[in-house]
Design goal:
By secondary structure, this protein is an all-beta fold. About 0% of the residues lie in helices and about 35% in strands.
Length: about 50
């Protein structure tokens, strides 16, 4: 899960040739936080924090 908190538009632009870079459509400032989790039979387990 990689949520983005944007100072401007929520629309994104993924047209960079590297195929990985994500920008907001209006190029506003953005913060991102990544969390890895596993879905288990009993719920979930956080793998990173």
């Amino acid at each position: 899960i990689e949520p983005m908190i944007n100072a401007g538009a929520q629309e994104i632009d993924m047209t960079d040739p590297n195929g990985w870079t994500v920008r907001t459509a209006d190029r506003s400032l953005t913060a991102q936080w990544e969390v890895q989790l596993a879905i288990t039979e009993y719920g979930y387990e956080l793998l990173s924090w």
